[in-house]
């Protein structure tokens, strides 16, 4: 398997999960501006949508979209418990959470990466993000991880997105349970290894 990634982008979530599951994989860096890959090709030949993450399987199939990749990986090693069984009610709870992170946090924060975003729009997106974080902070009142007491692929995704907040001048101090969650996940071996590998990867 090959994971196409850009450092600190949303591809960090499947990267963490690959390491949590101890699956064999190759990490291929992508320059998100030039769209060149470390293999020397044009990334749009791998994912015509032009964005990471993309997972190339041994059979040549390329899977894109974070929530789909995360569930595919978890199902390769169901005994690791990173996703509830397909068809179960709890699996729907996972999908509910992945969609929330994808649509409300990930897509909701994307405009804030633009330095030329008008101030009024920036304030509006920040306020909306704040409401979503309020809800998550309440969810974490009763549990250490999004689905309960155990780490799941949704936690890898949430950890990744929370890591962007300082760039938007959003301080997790305002959401103490989210801050504790971030610190908890940050200490996992797979997370430390993934961050180190991304930092050590050569620019394309
Ligand atoms: N819907 C996609 C969004 C992926 C996405 O936003 N990727 C960003 C990095 S976090 C990217 O590669 N952006 C570069 C671009 O759009 O040109 C998913 O959930 O996987």
UniProtKB/TrEMBL annotation:
One of its GO terms (molecular function) is transferase activity. It comes from the Bacteria. The lineage of its organism: Bacteria, Pseudomonadati, Pseudomonadota, Betaproteobacteria, Neisseriales. Residues 87-204 form the GST C-terminal domain. The keyword Transferase applies. CDD domains: GST_C_Beta, GST_N_Beta. This is Glutathione transferase GstA. The keyword DNA-binding does not apply. It comes from Chromobacterium sphagni. Residues 1-81 form the GST N-terminal domain. Keywords: Transferase.
